[in-house]
């Protein structure tokens, strides 16, 4: 923090910009402006300097001290290969955040800023991509301050006995494919999609931990490509040097199937076993299905097992034909035959989501005027509204008080409809709503009705949790790279499958 005289500004700004924070407050003649720097660089300092000349610079100072002591670390919520993640509270404003503490040391801020995770995340602004709020380097340790999410998809799956409803899987995957379409259009691909990297809060899903794999391959000592084997595309398994966003599509096919069955689709115990597991399900590739794959295999002296494979519909007996069709196209041997994320959003499996999505956009335009946010953001807010309503309803059921009910109703109307009014504007337009959208709105209306007519009572839940099922990893040990890493059952929960 400090007053800046214009002559010294250039120097000072350079100094500031290489500090560990992004946001700056600029005081210009009693008028405080906030400059948010995309990525600190000299270029930014020069352009800010230019804009300041015209607004009579008085002072430039840090909006936030770039120190970790502003955050109180509460609990470790995740431990990955590269960092441990903590739930933390910003002591200044009470905001709950996630703090990722990187395991490697970083000796300069420039080194941190060149990390692909930082570069790519700073450029991503999408409701289904986890937000990177700050980057702090303190005592050579790098911390990412991110928005906090309640859990990841793997944690949701491991406590389940009954498969998720297809509508839940559809909603989650629709959100992730939107994030992927956004990201792929901007020239980035994730390369490490897995249930642990898909974070959930209420009904909203966000992509996390992306861009890292690329950084790993380019920054020694992390020289080898690392991603979780069960979701690794065949071209990567066969060591292709030219792969693209189709690797994310493969991973999504495997994740979708796992969500629908609660079992990993290709649980290989080694790279060779991974290919065997794939062949068991989709059959081995041939000249028609993937000629480049045969060349890749030949180059590394690998022979595909001659297996015809079972039908995907047999593996996923309760899944709809649309779900099976989408997963089989995503899990095509040939990356060129996998649909792009934007195409997936048009698939029959997502017809319902698309109708709701369009309805929400239309409804918003009719009730509130032109859209100032993307329809996807609206959809996320809409879902958050519903999730919030059902959460409040459950809370009220558990510990009900008549005064609290009135308050809950008000909060719900405020957050969901933007009004305190007695009538829900969404309900006023329900005649134009497609069937599924109407069902959702009716769900909300039932919740609010129940809240309104609830009597004073208190309930406790006595349901007994069924035992946690184990997902089985395969046992074959062969590996054409001479490695083997069978996973002992106790290690299942962390699923470190990176060979
Ligand atoms: N923003 C967040 N909010 C809440 N939990 C998070 C958040 N980001 C990550 N986590 C949790 O921490 C775990 C590890 O985080 P992350 O994947 O970013 O670390 P990593 O070291 O890159 O892991 P990996 O071994 O997958 O490369 C995640 O699986 C998730 O459960």
From TrEMBL:
Q: Where are the transmembrane segments?
A: none
In this chain the Protein kinase domain maps to 71-350
- Kindly state which reaction or reactions the protein catalyses: L-threonyl-[protein] + ATP = O-phospho-L-threonyl-[protein] + ADP + H(+); [DNA-directed RNA polymerase] + ATP = phospho-[DNA-directed RNA polymerase] + ADP + H(+); L-seryl-[protein] + ATP = O-phospho-L-seryl-[protein] + ADP + H(+)
Q: Name one GO molecular function term.
A: cyclin-dependent protein serine/threonine kinase activity
Q: Where does ATP bind?
A: 101
Q: Where is the signal peptide?
A: none
Swiss-Prot/TrEMBL keywords: ATP-binding, Kinase, Nucleotide-binding, Phosphoprotein, Serine/threonine-protein kinase, Transferase
The keyword Nucleotide-binding is annotated on this UniProt entry: yes
Q: Which family does it belong to?
A: Belongs to the protein kinase superfamily. CMGC Ser/Thr protein kinase family. CDC2/CDKX subfamily.
PANTHER family, per database record: MITOGEN-ACTIVATED PROTEIN KINASE
Please identify the protein, giving its name as recorded: Protein kinase domain-containing protein
Organism, per UniProt? Answer: Triticum turgidum subsp. durum (Durum wheat)
